[in-house]
C-alpha cells in the first residue's frame, strides 16, 4: 500500500478525534482558484494523495490559467474537477475547446457544471442543463459530472425565496443521470446549521431524487470573513449561526471552525446509514493550508473508497 503523501502535524495535545466525523470526512474534496493555488508550494504537503480538487472558475480568469492549475494538480496525483460555469461560456465550440484543453494537458474526466454567478449569460448558455444537453461531456468520455445543490434555496433562481424552479431543475438532472454513463452527484453551497441541511436532503430523497450529496462546508476562517462570504453567496437561515456567534464578545475574535455542523451531520449519518449525504466538500475561505490542516487533524485522510460517490 502506498504511503499517503502529506505531512501530519503533531496532534498529541489535541482532543480525541470524533470517529463519526472522521468517517464522514473520508474522501473529502476541496476547492482552489488559480491565484490561490500559486501561493501553495506543494499541495502534496497539505492534501492526501488522490484528493478531489475543484478548480473554481471566476469570471475574468483566462482558461489557460485554469488548465495550467489543473495540469499541476494532476501531475501531483490529485483528481481534478474544474468548474464549467454556463453563463461565461460563449458557445458550444468554446465549451468543446475547454474540454479538449483540460483533457489534453491534464487528463481531466470530471467536471462541476453550474450556471455561474453572472446575472446574465455572456453567450449561448444560461444553465448547467444546457451544457449537459450539448452532449459534449458524454462525447469526451467524462466519467463524473457534478451539479449544484442549494440546501437553503437560491434567490438568483427562485427570486420569491421558494424552491420551485430549483426543484424542477433537480428533477431534470435526476432523469439525465438515469440516461448518462457519467456518475453524478450534487455539490452544494455551504451552510452552517445541520438542521436545514438534513431536512433538505431528506426532502430530496422523499421526492425520488437520489443523487449522492457532497455537502458544502466552509472551512475555518475569521468570523468576519465568513459573514461577508455568506451574505455574498446568499446563504439562508443558517447565517444566524454566525450572527449569534458575532454577538458573543468571547467568541467574536476566535476563528470559526465547522466542528458543530459536521458533528451533527456525522451523527445523523451514523444513525441513518442510508442518509444521502455521502461526502464533504470544503470551501477554504480562511486559506487552503488552514482548511487542509483542520481536516487532517479531524480525521480526514484518504481519497474516496471505490464504492463511495
Overview of the molecule:
There is one protein chain. The protein is an alpha/beta fold and 309 residues long. It has one domain: Alpha-Beta Barrel (TIM Barrel). It is built from 13 helices and eight strands. The longest helix is centred in the middle third of the chain and has 16 residues, at 164-179. InterPro entries: FAD-linked_oxidoreductase-like. This is Methylenetetrahydrofolate reductase. Keywords: Oxidoreductase. It comes from Antarcticimicrobium sediminis.
Q: Secondary-structure blueprint of this entry?
A:
Blueprint lengths: L18 H7 L3 E4 L1 H4 L14 E4 L7 H13 L3 E7 L6 H15 L3 E5 L13 H6 L2 H4 L4 E6 L14 H16 L3 E8 L3 H13 L6 E6 L4 H10 L6 H8 L2 H4 L6 H13 L5 E7 L4 H10 L12
Parallel strand pairs: 1-2, 1-8, 2-3, 3-4, 4-5, 5-6, 6-7, 7-8
Helix pairs in contact: 1-12, 3-4, 8-12, 9-10
GO molecular function: oxidoreductase activity
Protein name: Methylenetetrahydrofolate reductase
Keywords: Oxidoreductase
Give keywords:
oxidoreductase; 8 strands; single chain; globular; 40% helix; FAD-linked_oxidoreductase-like; 15% strand; alpha/beta; disordered N terminus; TIM Barrel; Methylenetetrahydrofolate reductase
